[in-house]
Amino acid sequence: MTRAERRLILTSQLKLSNEGKVKVSKEAVSGPTGGASFIAELQPAIAPRLVERFDSGELDWVEELGSTAKVRVAVDLGAALSEVEQRDLTNPVGGSQPNFYPQPGSLDPPLFAVNASHFSYSGLQQAAACPLRWYAETAIGMPNAWEGASEQKAPALSPRVRGVVMHGLLETQRFGQHPPTAEQAVAAAAVAQEDLDARHAPDVIAATSAVLASSTWARISELGLANPKAVRREESFALLLDCGRHGRVHLRGVLDVFLREDSGLVQVIDWKASAGAAGSQDLPALVAADYSIQREAYALAALESGGANRPERVEVIHLYAERPEEPVSEAFTQQDVERLRKSLQTRVSDLLDSGFPATESPHAGLCSGCPAARTLCPHPAEMTARPRPA
Ligand code: SF4
Fold first, then answer.
1. How many Å lie between the centroid of ligand 1 and the Cα of residue 118?
2. What is the dihedral of CA 361, 365, 368, 371, to 10 degrees?
3. Closest Cα to atom 7 of ligand 1
4. Ligand 1 mean position, distance from CA 119 (Å)
5. Which of 157, 174, 209, 221 could form a disulfide with 200 if both were Cys (CB 3.0 to 4.6 A apart)?
6. pLDDT digits over 230-288, tens only?
7. Pair 289, 198 in one domain
8. 256 and 199 in one domain?
9. Are residues 334 and 220 in the same domain?
10. DSSP H or E stretch at residue 119
């Protein structure tokens, strides 16, 4: 209360003594069973004549407290509740309001609204894969099932930790130097506040070394040694998206490598570590399925970089540690800017309108460790444990 400099709104409830009449006994406001403990505590300070006002039928008045403070007291006799009850049930409430009419499989109803003013592109990408999982983990904050369920056994090295540590090592790797050691991997994990058992460090080092041995890294390294300013790592960006009735949404992210040559060539390079890539028959299709939102966000951020000196053309490259000589590249030009912006805006709006249902296409790779599995998720275990559908 002491931090409210301009306006503080307090609400409470009490039971009127006769339905339809504003008549309240002193006991109902201050007594132990009046159901109005909040009012009972504050009433002497904020509305000294509360009971008399109610008894005389006043519903809205201003109480003068001393020479500077004023308290407006408003009594709601249930009109707001009636309005909700009479609402057309076929007309879902969307946006940042609680969704009273969720789609089958979504939360019933969500406990609270999603703060829609900020998104990370990776969050948006995860939400596109399964809105319910994203909601459970990000909006509700349910712990990952490996952390939350003691009877489940965590995998030896989680793909997430492997990827986080590999990115940390590649961020600080000096150009032209030897690959990092296992000790450096453990240290990088600690910096990222991840737990990396020393026994698993060689796995991370192998993935990192595969990237460092690639032609792509050789090119970045050569350019970085010749012109350090041309290669930036872990470059942050923020895109402001106009998402209609959801308002303006910041989409934030970080580029693993942002490369800008004097020739005008601009590339964004993203490192990936994924067991699924090793046996993939179609890497471009894998990237399109898993990282299309990320690619759009990267392309738009790169095309809008440089102030007045925007690049005419940019390339977004995904490189898997498991397939280091097969980078997947897609080019974009300034003609794509509006399309990219519109697509991202639509993706955010669609997510916020969706009611956060579970994906219709669950599989083990997506559902592993999901905190909503077997609780909020409508899919049976045989669906969430199956291999990824072709
Ligand atoms: S178990 Fe799978 S389908 Fe179900 S909520 Fe989690 S990620 Fe989505």
1. 23
2. -50
3. 367
4. 20
5. 157
6. 899 988 888 889 988 888 888 888 899 999 888 888 999 999 998 888 888 899 999 99
7. no
8. no
9. yes
10. strand 118-120
